[in-house]
Amino acid sequence: MKSEPLILGIETSCDETGVGIVRGQTLLADAIASSVEEHARFGGVVPEVASRAHLEAMVPTIRRACETAGIKPSDVDAVAVTSGPGLAGALLVGVAAAKGLALSLDKPIYGVNHLAAHVAVDTLEHGQLPKGCVAMLVSGGHSSLLAVEDITEGVVPMGNTIDDAAGEAFDKVARVLGLPFPGGPWIDKAARDGDSQYVTFPRGLTSQRDLERHRFDFSFSGLKTAVARWVEARRRDGEDVPVNHVAAAFQEAVCDVLTRKAIDACKDRGFEHLLIGGGVAANSRLRAMAEERAAAAGIAVRVPRPALCTDNGAMVAALGSELVRAGKSPSPLDLPADSSMPITEVLN
Ligand code: KG4
Ligand code: ZN
């Protein structure tokens, strides 16, 4: 029997320099260098800072991944890299590194879609993907519902955010509440001691009228503004802001809409599996609510462990591995760093 392919994956679409090594569907190494602290004082990712950090971290992170996996670069069967979507300058660093590596090792290169990689990473945790599933990707940059039959063939977009991404809403509300960046984990933590019913914040795009046009779309900008107004009003009246309660009520509103629409999407497609990925999938309330509501609807939930949900190199290697295993042709060596790579393209 031919052994499973050994794939090295490189991710640089945002602020994490990730290098993952996968054999078949087995994770061997997942090295990460994050520039998140360099962006913290700006309250968001600064593209130029991210690109420079990728450049500095790239070679050491590749080395670290190879050491952890106990392999030499020349052992790999193919190099996979995030081709897009993402920050142009940041992507360019990863794509250039991957090209250099593939060229010097004389190995094929696969320039893959970051969003499809967020889906494929689940193979490392739960094995083969189900034949049909809805993937909900929620992070600082994206909030999408996708129908996935075969990840190596592409995904069908069902819905998207029409304004802020879910993680972006977490980050902005955290800022309003005086919590550090990135705000998601802080809100998650604060909410544990809060009363989610303390205030009822709006659920975007859930009215009957909105559902007619935006059944599977999300909107978090109104929610973010509602929280900011509520907090301002309290401060204006000289009252304390109950951070834990506001965090819990905000989180409840986000998770309510996300899980409701995700389950509706599964029902619409007749799929019995819901996969959740992206940084916000680390949210404890989202995981619990998704499990509870999906179980009631006869749907199984697959969520990779938090370290695999946030951006990393393993997800890129995982998708590369699926493509190699499916016999897909590699990318040309002049493949682009494609900041607006469409979600429907798995491979550039
Ligand atoms: O996937 P990711 O690492 O990077 C992007 O592609 O954006 O996601 C980062 C986002 C941030 O907005 C962060 O606040 C959010 O994921 N996040 C969370 C949690 N952990 C990370 N949001 C809610 N709850 C969490 N526990
Ligand atoms: Zn991502």
TrEMBL record:
A family per Pfam: TsaD
Top-level division of the source organism's lineage: Bacteria
CDD domains: ASKHA_NBD_TsaD_bac
An annotated Gene Ontology molecular function: tRNA N(6)-L-threonylcarbamoyladenine synthase activity
Enzymatic reactions: L-threonylcarbamoyladenylate + adenosine(37) in tRNA = N(6)-L-threonylcarbamoyladenosine(37) in tRNA + AMP + H(+)
GO cellular component: cytoplasm
Biological process terms in GO annotation: tRNA threonylcarbamoyladenosine modification
InterPro entries the UniProt entry points to: ATPase_NBD, Gcp-like_dom, KAE1/TsaD, Peptidase_M22_CS, TsaD
EC main group: transferase
HAMAP family, alphabetized: TsaD
Family: Belongs to the KAE1 / TsaD family.
The protein, known as: tRNA N6-adenosine threonylcarbamoyltransferase
Organism per entry: Kribbella sp. HUAS MG21
